[in-house]
Amino acid sequence: MEVIRRVVLALNRVDADHFDGDFATVEREYLCEYIDAAINASGVDLDALAERRLIDRAELTDEWRD
């Protein structure tokens, strides 16, 4: 979860610094798919992680997303 937190906070900074809070939805979705694939490739089971936290997988980043 710490890695997910750091990635989300870094993306928030990129958005604020370079897109004035207007990071296009399509770009964000492509980036999220890439990050998801990278996390899965490293052996992390995101479904199991979400299940252990008693949340939906889509909610894994909610705590830190702007």
Description:
The chain is globular and about 35 Å long. It has one domain (2-59). The protein is 62% helix and 0% strand. By secondary structure, it is an all-alpha fold.
Poorly predicted ranges (pLDDT <50, ≥5 residues)?
A: none
Given the C-alpha coordinates, what overall shape results? globular
Q: DSSP helix count?
A: 3
Tell me about the largest β-sheet: none
Secondary-structure content class: mainly alpha
Q: How helical, in percent, are the residues? A: 55-70%
| Total DSSP E strands | 0
Number of domains: 1
Quick rundown:
With 66 residues, the protein is mainly α. Helix content is 62%, strand content 0%.
Record the SSE blueprint.
Layout: H1 2-18, H2 25-41, H3 46-52
Name some characteristics of this structure.
mainly alpha; 0% strand; 66 residues; 3 helices; single chain
